[in-house]
Design goal:
The complex is a heterotrimer of chains A (295), B (769) and C (161).
Chain A: E1 6-9, H1 13-22, E2 27-29, H2 35-40, E3 48-51, E4 61-63, E5 69-71, H3 77-82, H4 84-89, H5 91-97, H6 103-108, H7 111-116, H8 125-130, E6 134-139, E7 142-147, H9 148-151, E8 152-154, E9 157-158, E10 165-171, H10 173-176, E11 180-186, E12 197-205, E13 212-220, E14 227-228, H11 230-236, H12 243-253, H13 267-288
Parallel strand pairs in A: 1-3, 2-3
Antiparallel strand pairs in A: 4-5, 5-10, 6-7, 6-10, 8-9, 11-12, 12-13, 13-14
Helix pairs in contact in A: 11-12, 12-13
Chain B: H1 12-17, H2 23-26, E1 32-38, E2 44-50, H3 52-55, E3 60-65, E4 100-101, E5 107-113, H4 116-125, E6 127-132, H5 139-143, E7 158-166, H6 169-172, E8 179-187, E9 199-205, E10 208-213, H7 218-229, E11 236-240, H8 256-265, E12 271-274, H9 277-283, E13 289-298, E14 304-316, H10 324-336, E15 342-350, H11 364-382, H12 386-393, E16 400-401, E17 406-407, H13 412-424, H14 426-432, E18 440-449, E19 462-469, E20 475-479, H15 488-500, E21 507-509, E22 513-514, H16 529-556, E23 563-566, E24 569-572, E25 578-581, H17 582-590, E26 600-606, E27 614-624, E28 629-640, H18 647-666, E29 698-702, H19 725-737, H20 748-757
Parallel strand pairs in B: 1-12, 10-11, 14-15, 20-21, 28-29
Antiparallel strand pairs in B: 1-5, 2-4, 2-6, 3-5, 7-15, 8-13, 9-10, 9-12, 11-22, 13-14, 16-17, 18-27, 19-20, 19-26, 23-24, 24-25, 27-28
Helix pairs in contact in B: 7-8, 10-11, 11-12, 11-19, 15-16, 18-19
Chain C: E1 5-12, E2 15-22, H1 27-34, E3 53-56, E4 59-62, E5 75-77, H2 91-98, H3 108-120, H4 127-134, H5 145-159
Parallel strand pairs in C: 1-5
Antiparallel strand pairs in C: 1-2, 3-4, 3-5
The chains are: A alpha+beta (295), B alpha+beta (769), C alpha+beta (161).
Chain lengths: 295, 769, 161
């Protein structure tokens, strides 16, 4: 039995927005795998909850006419991972979704929750960052769109107004067409774990596959929020697919991340792993794009 | 005959259908819910509580604090048999609630409420004032003069120190030409992590306390609850239903005394104390952290001149099993590689940390990490093959242990090593992995373990059994020894069926122990169930059989010496002719109008042997140096546990132990905040048990040398499988990388440090994936 | 404060059920306390151990972190629902017995329910894939080995039919 004060169940986005306005202190619960745990451990005990669990309209993935991929925020990780649109166009996101916790957590956890809890270590955000994804936020005044990179304010805090609800995650066509990507989660064990460092990279190769036309990279758990590494991207952009480029890219990452030391491990270790993952994710992305690494 | 056959578990059907009831499944919904207030400082004194807000919570029945404890009955918690000599008893240093706080999480008060939400809310509203003392977390720091003192009776926090001196170490090391190999080794605090948390409930009926508890040792619980409450032991009744694993944690008396006391404080109303997982990590028991210093003096020919060990065993805040774990470590060190000149010192030391108790392996996994890592280092220093070095120095056939009065009767070590090495292709792979470069490297490693069965002569070894015939020729079987998941009920049934001569389907074992009804037994620990209970089953079964045959003699007018019971029927030995089925016989006897008799037997076996149970692990790993990760490719354990009563269950039990060893080796550690003493990863996300995906296929092999002291040729198997896994992995990592890990676990942060120190990473970063 | 209790209707092990549930209850609470389906075990209450796993509309969920009110309109299957009306057990339950995949039995119900979800997909999986799909269960007794064997054996038997 959970210790919360009230549960308001919304059946539609409009109703959820109304409930948000009517209960300003209430917390949104979608899948529950974060919220219920925080209630149990006392952090959010006694809270009011607005359940959006029943808003089926917010589930599923759609390919829009202009090539934008529209992901309902209540889509579970497992449904995301097995979705044909995702599998065809952005398999790297399926890869990321498949590395969340465990099968049961992937069935209950949602991509919307993964973003809105503001965690730096979440599995899907780094990939959404490199895909230049936008979030659609719906409130009393209607909907607005924000790049997911700007949605994060600080650790655990996102730019969600008191009456707003995340209603879609949008991946624009130009962000994925011609790109191949790879996500690596580094954790202490192979399942049921949280990232120590994570890295998502995608690349677009030149037609001859010898050069990197464009590259984007993002990291999790090496700063207060997930982050892109524009400097590293610039270091590799236009470069040949060589060990030298990979090395330049990976070492540039170090100047752009700000990991910390805690009981789990040290800052130095996280830096070491981030650099290693950057190199490996880039190499794999190039290989997936039909290229190879040359001396 | 059933012994030696892979008989299906007698409790499997109930467990795959959900019909097997565990403690929480049996508790009535009317129960009050108890929750414990744990200290949020590591060392100090409780000055006062502010309960005003907590008391206002709707549904709170009563809040009890350490200051409500009028009579102070100190008790010891290890699930050992009672010791008549007060000087030899376990240290009695616990109270159900304490005002002296000795670790972060000590039990200082409790809430009893009508439901869990009310109990939770009250818990959060209780304010505590403390007088704080400095605390100490490190075992060697705790021994220093001026370190914070946990118990007045134990200066320098030393619970006990023992030393062993054999031969003349000081003189032996002066022998010219000796090679000195020295190392420090360390293992962390761990937790058992049985999937069912410890839970119990208590109610007063007929002025007695009825307790149902998830325990390995129901008869010990009865005694300790009596001691803790200061009431007659007979006024306690303990029932142990199916339990969701124990691994030694539930061999300690955990919260049964507190639950019983709370029940008495609320008029005897039913009270349930269900311990959340986070508290299980901190406020139950843990595996002793260990630090060991080993010095070996070896001759160039690969023999030992002298050996030395200093062992520091981290007891945590209270004595629990105390120095027994360290004593086992010392024995294992001394006996695994016998040497004429030995100097061993072991200290068990209090620190402001969770209380260490029994955990599968009882010190042996700790000492084997140190010893078997060290043994590989010696071989490397001598330029010898580590297996050949072991074979030359391991406890030889015929080795006699003066203390345990036992002789090594089988060449278990050599046989197990050969079988395990063969299974993994050790020699071929060792050769293959000799000259590797690059980031991904493979290696193989081996380690042996030392273990013995049961607890004699340290402790009493006793087991009682009761059998009663039913009218259909079936029988009830009851023991004080307990099923805790290991398969005890099944092997007990097999042994009983064979002894009496009935089909196994006709053996009805009473799985739950109810101390009002069950014969006395000390419970599940020390890898003793099959061995100790085997003795009492055999003794009782033979008595029952004799009684049956005597009745048959009267009914059939044939001498009982000419009769036998086979497959539930009385047969004539001479020609095998079936003379009568057991059902007919029992009915004739039980309903006889001239002399009715209920055919039963009960006896106690007093056991005075503790045979060695030895074996090894061989492991193959792949190391990704840059990622600081070890992937286990292959692992095999080989055991000589004597005759396997049930090979399928034996194999399964070895798998489980190996799994625990893999977690121990690669990922598990309970971590404490240096500033507060607070554990930081006391949950199943942050404390890394190995998962389905962290294991390769596990392989269990056996050599079956019949144990001469065992009633069925069997000896202990429960704990040993965990003992040699970590050092075998460590030795394989060394083979792969040339880097020697000294500290467990071999998780990425520790590997990072070791690889940096060895210069494998950090200087030049590699990109070859 | 809105209603503390809510009437829900759902199918549990093939039978239509109605219950007034406390909105604060987890599905594990509902199944254990109201329906007395005690195969649903609590081992951590934070979705890590998998002991409370049940199938909801065919997918595995840790019922400890699933609100009971969400079960409204859902089809729920627990271990108890695998038995036939005559008490005959399913192939995967029998395989757990035959492969000695059961020890203390506390993780067993949840693990079997994940196996049911996997097996119902009717696909041939490698050992590695079986491990991935079962990885939401912690077991301290078996080392997972015989559980993998039991799932694999049942999968192969079903596919060869």
């Amino acid at each position: 039995m959970y210790d919360f004060k009230a549960l308001y169940e919304a059946k539609s986005v409009d109703e959820a927005v109304r409930l948000r306005r009517g209960h300003p202190g209430a917390r949104i619960i979608a899948g529950g795998s974060d919220v219920l745990i925080r209630i149990r451990n006392g952090k959010w005990a006694g809270a009011e909850l607005i359940s959006i669990h029943g808003i089926d309209a917010l589930r599923g993935v759609k390919l829009e006419d202009d090539g934008t991929i529209r992901i309902g925020p209540l889509t579970s990780f497992s449904h995301l991972a097995s979705d044909p649109v995702i599998g065809t166009h952005i398999p790297v996101l399926a890869e990321a979704a498949n590395q969340v916790g465990s099968p049961q957590i992937r069935n209950i956890g949602t991509i919307g929750g993964n973003i809105c809890n503001g965690s730096p270590a979440a599995d899907t955000p780094p990939t959404l960052f490199v895909l230049d994804a936008q979030v659609e936020l719906t409130g009393t005044e209607g909907a607005r769109r924000v790049p997911v990179r700007d949605f994060y304010i600080r650790a655990g805090v996102v730019d969600l107004k008191p009456d707003e609800l995340l209603t879609a995650v949008l991946v624009p066509g130009e962000a994925y067409r011609g790109y191949t990507g790879h996500y690596i989660k580094y954790a202490m064990r192979e399942a049921l774990d949280i990232s120590v460092v994570s890295c998502s990279v995608n690349v677009k190769l030149t037609e001859d596959k010898k050069r990197i036309e464009n590259v984007r990279a993002a990291f999790g758990a090496v700063g207060p929020v997930p982050l892109r590494t524009p400097g590293a991207e610039a270091a590799a952009r236009g470069g040949e697919t060589t060990e030298r480029t990979v090395k330049a890219f990976a070492s540039a990452v170090l100047g752009e991340i700000s990991p910390w030391s805690d009981w789990r491990t040290s800052k130095a270790f996280r830096e070491h792993i981030a650099e290693e993952l950057a190199a490996r994710a880039l190499i794999r992305s190039i290989e997936l794009g039909g290229g190879g690494i040359h001396a | 005959m059933y012994v030696g056959k892979p008989v299906k578990r007698v409790d499997a059907f109930d467990k795959v259908t959900g019909r097997a009831r565990f403690t929480d499944d049996l508790c009535d919904k009317s129960a009050y819910i108890a929750r414990i207030v744990h200290s949020t400082i590591a060392h100090g004194k409780v000055v006062s509580f502010d309960l005003a807000e907590a008391r206002k919570v709707k549904g709170v029945v009563k809040i009890l604090t350490c200051f409500d404890l009028r009579e102070k009955h100190y008790f010891g918690t290890p699930g050992h048999p009672y010791v008549l000599d007060p000087a030899q008893r376990d240290v009695e240093d616990r109270l159900v609630l304490t005002d002296t706080v000795r670790f972060w999480g000590d039990d200082i008060a409790a809430v009893v409420a009508e439901n869990e939400v009310a109990a939770e809310q009250a818990l959060r509203l209780i304010k505590v004032q403390y007088e704080e003392y400095p605390f100490v977390l490190d075992v060697q720091e705790a021994m220093k003069d001026g370190a914070p003192q946990l118990h007045a009776a134990f200066p320098n926090n030393i619970l006990e120190h023992t030393g062993i001196r054999e031969g003349d170490y000081a003189k032996a090391i002066t022998e010219p030409g000796l090679i000195k190999v020295e190392g420090w080794y360390e293992t962390p605090t761990m937790q058992h992590c049985h999937i069912e948390n410890h839970i119990c409930y208590a109610e007063m009926k007929q002025n007695r306390i009825h307790l149902v508890s998830s325990t390995q040792v129901p008869h010990v619980v009865r005694r300790v609850v009596g001691q803790a409450l200061g009431i007659d032991w007979g006024r306690i009744r303990v029932v142990k239903p199916y339990i969701g694993g124990g691994f030694g944690n539930k061999q300690d008396i955990l919260y049964e005394p507190l639950c019983a006391w709370l029940c008495m404080q609320v008029g005897g109303h039913l009270v349930k104390l269900d311990v959340p997982r986070e508290e299980t990590f901190v406020c139950n028991r843990v595996r002793h952290g260990f630090r060991g210093h080993i010095i070996s003096w070896v001759r160039p020919d690969g023999t030992f001149a002298a050996r030395k060990l200093e062992a520091f065993s981290d007891q945590g805040a209270y004595a629990s099993h105390g120095h027994a774990i360290c004593a086992v470590e010392m024995a294992a060190f001394r006996q695994t590689y016998p040497c004429e000149n030995v100097e061993i010192d072991g200290w068990t030391v209090f620190t402001n940390k969770p209380v260490a108790g029994a955990m599968r392996g009882y010190g042996v996994p700790q000492i084997m990490w140190a010893l078997e890592s060290h043994t590989d280092e010696i071989a490397a220093a001598l330029g010898q093959d580590p297996i050949a070095f072991r074979r030359r120095n391991l406890m030889p056939l015929g080795y006699y242990d003066m203390f345990g009065h036992r002789k090594l009767a089988a060449d278990s070590y050599n046989q197990c090593l050969s079988k395990a090495m063969e299974a993994i292709g050790y020699d071929r792979k060792r050769e293959m992995y000799r000259h590797q470069t690059g980031n991904i490297r493979r290696g193989t490693g081996a380690a042996v373990f030392w273990f013995d069965t049961g607890t004699w002569p340290f402790l009493l070894e006793t087991s009682s059994c009761r059998m009663a015939m039913n009218q259909d020729g079936s029988m009830q079987l009851q023991l004080g020894e307990t099923e805790i998941g290991q398969g005890a009920d099944t092997v007990f049934s097999q042994m009983a069926a064979d002894t009496v001569g009935v089909p196994i389907e006709k053996v009805h074992i009473v799985s739950a122990q109810d101390t009002d009804v069950a014969p006395f037994g000390t419970g599940a620990y020390g890898s003793r169930q099959t061995y100790s209970a085997g003795h009492s089953i055999r003794k009782t079964g033979l008595q029952l059989k004799q009684k049956i045959l005597e009745k048959a003699e009267k009914l059939l007018q044939i001498s009982s010496a000419d009769l036998n019971i086979v497959d539930g029927e009385i047969i004539h030995i001479a020609d095998g002719a079936v003379l009568m089925d057991l059902g007919t016989l029992v009915k004739e006897v039980q309903y006889s109008r001239s002399g009715s008799c209920h055919l039963t037997a009960e006896s106690t076996a007093h056991i005075t042997a503790a045979p060695y149970t030895l074996g090894c692990t061989v492991a193959e790993v792949e190391v990704d140096i840059a990622l600081c990760k070890v992937r286990l490719l292959n692992i095999v354990n080989c055991h000589d546990a004597g005759v396997l009563i049930n090979p399928a269950l034996a194999e399964a039990q070895v798998h489980g132990g190996m799994s625990m060893g893999i977690g121990y080796g690669l990922s598990e550690k309970l971590v404490f905040d240096e500033k507060t003493g607070r554990p930081v990863n006391n949950n199943l996300l942050d404390y890394k048990l190995s998962t389905f995906m962290d294991h390769p296929s596990l392989r269990a092999e056996f050599v079956e040398n019949r144990e001469v002291t065992g009633p069925f040729g069997a000896k202990g198997l429960g704990e040993p499988p965990v003992a040699s896994v970590a050092p075998a992995i460590g030795n394989a990592v060394y083979c792969a990388t040339g880097v020697r890990l000294k500290k467990l676990p071999m998780d990425p942060p520790n590997l990072y440090q070791a690889f940096c120190e060895a210069g494998l990473i950090c200087d030049e970063r590699r990109v070859d994936a | 404060m809105p209603d503390q209790y809510k009437l829900i209707r759902c199918t549990v092990n093939g039978r239509e059920k109605e219950a007034m549930v406390d909105v604060r209850a987890s599905l594990a609470d509902l199944l254990r306390n109201d329906f007395r389906l005690t195969s649903v075990k609590k081992g951590c209450e934070v979705g890590e151990c998998g002991a409370c796993n049940v199938l909801i509309d065919g997918e595995s969920f840790n019922s400890c972190i699933y609100l009971a009110v969400w079960a409204d309109g859902k089809d729920i299957l627990t271990l108890e629902g695998l038995e036939g009306p005559d008490g005959k057990i399913s192939d995967i339950q029998q395989a757990f017995i035959d492969e000695a995949a059961v020890q203390c039995g506390f993780c067993t119900p949840g693990a079997i329910m994940s196996a049911v979800e996997i097996l119902n997909e009717g696909r041939l999986l490698s050992d590695e894939e079986i491990r991935v799909r079962m990885s939401g269960h912690l077991c301290r007794c078996t080392g997972y080995e015989n559980i993998v064997r039991a799932v694999k054996k049942t999968m192969l038997a079903r596919l060869s039919q």
